[in-house]
Amino acid sequence: MSGKSPETDVGAAAERAFERAARTLVRQMDAPDHWTGELSPSALATAVAAGALIALDRSLGEPGKRRKWIEAGLEWLARHANPDGGWGDTPRSPSNLSTTALGWAACRAGNSPAAAGAAQWLAGRGATPEPASLAARILARYGKDRTFSVPILMFCGATEPEPAARGAWLARAPRLPFEAALLPRGAWGAIGLPVVSYALPALIAVGLARHRGAPPRNPLLRALREAAAPRALRILESIQPSNGGFLEATPLTAFVTLSLAFAGLGDHPSARRGARFLEESMRPDGSWPIDTNLAVWLTTLSVQALGLRRGEFLPPETAEAVLRWLLACQHRRVHPYTGAAPGGWAWTDLPGGVPDADDTAGALLALKLLGPEAPEARAAAIRGAEWLLGLQNRDGGAPTFCRGWTRLPFDRSSPDITAHALRAWRAWREDFPNPARLDRAIARAVRYLAREQQPDGSWIPLWFGNDRQPDEANRVYGTARVLQALTALPPSLGEEAEAARTKGLERLCRLQLADGGWSGGPVGPASVEETALAVDALACALARIGPRLPGESAARIRAALGRGAAWLAAAIEENPLPTARPIGLYFARLWYYERLYPLIFAVSALRRAAELGGRPGGERAARRGGGQ
């Protein structure tokens, strides 16, 4: 016998795989100072973009002007329809109602033969492609949240080739109170708008198009709404980024452009700028992604994944450039779109980005690794931590964009974002001018996380899912991210956090599949992304609280970690740039995959596994803090 323990063998394999994956990750930097990544092509975005350009050409009497983009988009849709005739949100996703309805409408408007297959798919799901049937299904799918259902119905009406039939679509689209945009920002949450905070441009443009297409019968109401239109349009123009792309999002920008065209405002500056954004953001293959990029998010995740071992792979001058770039991405003014205070970070460095809690927390954790002693990094981190404090809801959790906006899902507190904020506050606590204030926020966040724990011990995230699970929830992502936060807490935070952490660790171990990997829940197959997240969380637990765990529990975690790390190391050895799975959820629960997610998550997990595996390199990294 060699005398090596199984843990040493796992650690050695993890170390080899980590070094290979880390080198691959660094090679994916496509700029001198950050990672840009590549979001999946989106059938939904492609359909809405092509349809918007069709509607704009029709509105302006410019037939054929945008034919290059329209034809390329329709050809991409035809090539990437699923065998059943429908479309999913990504080329790796099953067909769904919303994307297939939008693809059908765009292909119908552009005379693409792919429309027939989509119509057949819809009919087979009880949603024949005519207004009464399809509208009923779309409205039922989204319930009280009109953020996406009304734009879909408006799109079907605006792209309807027969003018006489357009009214039938509009009649089934609920009105959106675009005049609410004239109210003070603080009143929007109080009046209970039927759309989420980020959808203000759609509220204005789609609401106005619905009004113009089917005005209210009451002459007084009709006159009042028409009088509000010029001011609402000025607000729309004032919040549109310089490049024309609202939130850098193709679907949102396309819905706004299409609605303005349908309302007879195709020549409005916002419509023209929106069309330019769509033209410039089409990819060479004819597709559009849901968003331009996640550069800030990917860069902060990559820095965290490399940890304190980044110096082995990033030259000092590159690390310094990343730090400078990240500091430059911090928002320094009140944001015109959401009214967010200065101090946060968005997911991208482009003009359409909006500061949010998840990306701000990620930036704070990356700054702690890149420049903990740099005065400018410390000052930026204090501003960012203060910004997160201002966002914390009364329930103790952190929402995405706006504090206390509405009860709609993407405006509520969520466990994954709250856990990220908690970690960021802990990282900068000693530098914060008032640590006691952070401590109170952390205690409230912990209580929120304990309340949000599911009966089975898991946590369900907001921005990630798994389409293989019956409820499409990704319990592995949510549970892993919360456990990373809870295992970083001192014992003084009490029995509530301890009990939640113990139950979460047990659940994560039970979710491991027979082959050693993890999916998003009990249904497989395993993925690199989710296996890496679970391995990362279990390694964090053993590194930080291992001595405090009961012997049986520690042994169970160590066994699950060993099998998971071995699965992950083998996957990386086979393919150092693994195929991404659509686990990301964008606005309105649109699925996406990001090419770098599996690699980034694997680098982080393998590093931690190596540090626990008994190799000298891993031990050295752990002693100098690589397990953050």
Give an overview in words.
This protein has helices at 6-27, 43-60, 67-79, 97-109, 114-124, 131-142, 149-158, 163-171, 200-213, 219-239, 250-262, 269-281, 295-306, 316-328, 357-370, 375-391, 415-427, 435-452, 475-486, 495-510, 528-545, 551-574, 597-612, 616-623, and strands at residues 41-42, 288-289, 584-586, 590-592. It has 628 residues and is an all-alpha fold. The protein has 3 domains: 1-30 and 470-623, no CATH class; 42-289, Glycosyltransferase; 293-452, Glycosyltransferase (Alpha/alpha barrel), CATH 1.50.10. It has a two-stranded antiparallel sheet with strand order 1-2. Strands 3-4 form a two-stranded antiparallel sheet. Helix 15 packs parallel to helix 17. The longest helix has 24 residues, at 551-574. The relative contact order is 0.11. Mean pLDDT is 91; it is low at 614-627.
List the helices and strands and how they pair.
Layout lengths: L5 H22 L13 E2 H18 L6 H13 L17 H13 L4 H11 L6 H12 L6 H10 L4 H9 L28 H14 L5 H21 L10 H13 L6 H13 L6 E2 L5 H12 L9 H13 L28 H14 L4 H17 L23 H13 L7 H18 L22 H12 L8 H16 L17 H18 L5 H24 L9 E3 L3 E3 L4 H16 L3 H8 L5
Antiparallel strand pairs: 1-2, 3-4
Helix pairs in contact: 1-22, 1-23, 2-3, 2-4, 2-11, 4-5, 6-7, 7-8, 7-11, 9-10, 9-11, 11-12, 13-15, 13-23, 14-15, 15-16, 15-17, 17-18, 17-19, 19-20, 19-21, 21-22, 21-23, 22-23, 23-24
Tally of strands: 4
How much β-strand is present in the residues?
under 5%
- How many helices does DSSP assign? 24
- Please state the second-level CATH architecture of the largest domain: Alpha/alpha barrel
Unreliable segments of 5+ consecutive residues: 614-627
**CA distance, first residue to last residue:** 35 Å
Number of domains: 3
How do the helices and strands follow one another from N- to C-terminus?
HEHHHHHHHHHHHEHHHHHHHHHHEEHH
Overall pLDDT, averaged?
A: 91
User: Considering DSSP H and I runs of 4 or more, what fraction of the residues is helical?
Assistant: 55-70%
Which structural class is indicated by helix and strand composition? Answer: mainly alpha
Which value, in Å, is the CA radius of gyration? Answer: 25 Å
Strands of the biggest beta sheet: in what spatial order? 1-2
- In CATH's first tier, which class of the largest domain applies? Mainly Alpha
Examine the coordinates and then state which fold CATH places here, giving the name of the CATH topology of the largest domain.
Glycosyltransferase
**Largest sheet, if any?**
2 strands, antiparallel
Characterize the overall form.
globular
